[in-house]
Amino acid sequence: MIEELRIRGLGVIEDARIPFGAGLTVLTGETGAGKTMVLTGLDLIRGGRADVGLVRSGADRAEVDGQWLMTPSAPVGIRDRLDDLGAVVEDTREGDVLILGRTVASTGRSRAVAGGRTVPAAALGEITEGLVAVHGQADQLGLRDPRRQRELVDRFAGRDLLAEVSGFGILLEEHRSAVRELDDLRTHGQEREREAALLRHGIEEIDALAPEPDEDVELKALATLLAGATDVVAAAGAAHAALTGSEGSEVSAVDLLAQALRDLQRVEPLDPAVEPISADITRIIDSVGIVAGELAGHVAGLDADPERLARVEERRRRLSDLTRRYGPTLADVITWRAEAERTVAAADGADDHIEDLERQLRALTDRLLDEAGRLTRARTVAAAEFGRRVTAELRELAMPDAEVSVAITSAQDIADFTSSGADTVTLMLTPHRGSDPRPITAGASGGELSRVMLSIEVVLAGANPVPTFVFDEVDAGIGGRVAVEVGRRLSRLARSAQVLVVTHLPQVAAFADTHIVVTKGSSGQVTESSVVVVDGDDRVRELVRMLSGLEGSVSGAEHAAELLDLAAAERLGAGR
Questions:
Q1: For a Cys-Cys bond, which of 148, 286, 406, 497 suits 383, CB 3.0-4.6 Å?
Q2: What b/e readout covers 173-209, taking b as 16+ CB neighbours within 10 angstroms?
Q3: Is the dihedral of CA 396, 398, 402, 406 positive or negative?
Q4: For 389-439, how does the pLDDT look when each residue is reduced to its tens digit (9 = 90+)?
Q5: What are phi and psi of 405, to 5 degrees?
Q6: Mind giving me the DSSP string for 105-154?
Q7: Is 61:15 a contact under the CB 8 Å cutoff?
Q8: Which residues contact 114 (CB under 8 A, 6 or more apart)?
Q9: H or E segment to which residue 571 belongs
Q10: What is the domain partition of the chain in residue ranges?
Q11: What mean pLDDT, rounded, does the chain reach?
């Protein structure tokens, strides 16, 4: 539950600390005193929109800190989320305490904190979703939305139905995806066949040449060689002749080396030192012979045939045409062909794919209809009990002849299904005997809507409880005996949860376990001293103000005391 809210620089609130107790806590005060700012601060901690206009004039930022006592009843998932965020839950004598905070700078920047860690503002919403439920007059407007009415029945039905709704949404999207794919195959079949025909022509063109990877690079080098083959042959022949003396050369390298060898060999007997030199010349002559042989082989392999060069240039031209159409490189051409072949194969197998999709769609349709039927049956059972319980609550709120029922209509065409199923849920109200049931959006007054909403929340609190409920003037438009009954119902709800209420009704305030009065100081701001927990005579005076606006009214004081006695008797009878 919420133990305390600290607000600084928010709207009319300069600096205030608001303590909350267990049971029922009410906030009262003159219009404009700042009660709504308390709930605005709570909304910021719940991840609400950080509007720079909330920052008090002259302040550089607005700050809100909330202290939560994490009771054992707190949802386990919240602690898991806190662990994921690295948030620290403090272990105190009173129990585990969680601090959540929000800062809004006048420049527009916002900062969210959970357990000492900076977190996204959305994370605050995830954490507090299971800790507090806030309801106000906006919820009464939301009650006019059919989707909201369906959500209320589903929440009442419980987690099993909510899980089935989630699964239905996934199944419906799978069905719609199959329908879209099948429609696309049928609608664009001729277009795909025309595309496949063009791709087949391209594949045939490429296959006719059967290019190899990097063939264009290799052909370019070969063309360069063939174009200069005559010059290469002449130069290689001259070099071979110079080495070996062939082709009429008068002097060759071999002849000169042989003559040098013979001259040295004649003087070897006279000078043994020239013998190693003679051996070196012999090796050189052998090397020259090897080189000459290699050169002769290369010359023999050279092709100076102009026709071959023409054939190479023609293939290069045809490969260039392919790269211009399907390139820009030969590798791209080969990749294009592979992809085109897959596309053509898919087009050729489209008929088979359509048949497979049709079988899949029939199976999905059967599953979808079956799941929709299950949801309808579960909702019908839950709706009957939901209507019965809300009706019982309404009769405690001075609407003894009122009856709430739930009308469920189911779409027959899958195209009209939503992610929540086939059902449209409408809450119907019969306000008194002899009247016909009418949708609450058409037949309920503001006061009746307030009581219907409160009844629903009391019923949902028993079906899906959260530790804390906050009500912002849900008692608007009612008064007198009805207001007493509203106070009584809120008090009973507070037996199992913490309930915070902003109210203008003394009949409601009298039932509070903790009564907080918010006032403005002489400066027009709410400060620490402007938020007071009242009791005894101070509480009586506040109730008198709420009853008549006349300070010191004896009759008002008697009425206030009577209200307090009534509330005390209610709590005594409830054992608290």
A1: 406
A2: eebeebbeebeebeeeeeebeeebeebbebbebbeee
A3: negative
A4: 999 988 888 788 889 999 999 999 999 999 999 999 999 999 888 788 998
A5: -130, 170
A6: ETTS-EEEEETTEEE-HHHHHHHHTTTEEEEEHHHHHHTTSHHHHHHHHH
A7: no
A8: 82, 85, 87, 98, 99, 100, 101, 123, 124, 127
A9: helix 554-574
A10: 196-347
A11: 85
- Check residue 187 and give its pLDDT: 75
**Looking at the chain, how many residues does it have?**
576
Contacts of 381 (CB under 8 A, 6+ apart): 157
First-residue to last-residue Cα distance in the chain: 18
The rounded distance, in Å, linking the Cα atoms of 26 and 472 is 10
Q: Which of 340, 345, 342 minimizes the C-alpha distance to 322?
A: 340
- Of 350, 103, 89, 322, nearest in space to 211 by CA: 322
Question: Given the structure tokens 């589903």, which residue do they identify?
Answer: 154
Strands 110-114 and 117-119: antiparallel
This prediction has a pTM of 0.62
**In 397-470, which residue ranges form alpha helices assigned H by DSSP?**
440-443, 446-463
Question: Contacts by 425-430 with C-beta closer than 8 Å and gap 24+?
Answer: 425/146, 425/149, 425/150, 425/153, 425/379, 425/383, 426/146, 426/149, 427/143, 427/149, 427/152, 427/452, 428/404, 429/402, 429/403, 429/404, 430/401, 430/402, 430/403, 430/404, 430/405
Helix axes 306-326, 189-209, angle to 10 degrees: 160
CA 11 to CA 54: how far, in whole Å?
5
**Burial of residue 60, with CB atoms counted within 10 A of its CB: 0-12 exposed, 13-18 middle, 19 or more buried:** exposed
Q: What is the largest CA-CA distance in the chain?
A: 156
Amino acid at 175: H
Phi-psi region of 549 (alpha: psi -120 to 50; beta: other; left: phi over 0): left
Q: How far apart are CA 236 and CA 238, in angstroms?
A: 6
Angle, vertex CA 280, rays to CA 279 and CA 284, nearest 5: 120
Residue 217: CB atoms within 10 Å: 10
Phi, psi of 195 (to 5 degrees): -65, -40
The string of DSSP letters for 270-308 reads T-GGGHHHHHHHHHHHHHHHHHHHHHHHHHHH----HHH
- Alpha helices, DSSP H only, in 158-305? 159-187, 189-209, 215-227, 229-244, 253-267, 275-301
Could you write out the three-class secondary structure of 450-474? HHHHHHHHHHHHHHCCCCEEEEECC
With cut-offs at 50, 70 and 90, classify the pLDDT of residue 464: low
Q: State the pairing for strand pair 403-410/132-136.
A: unpaired
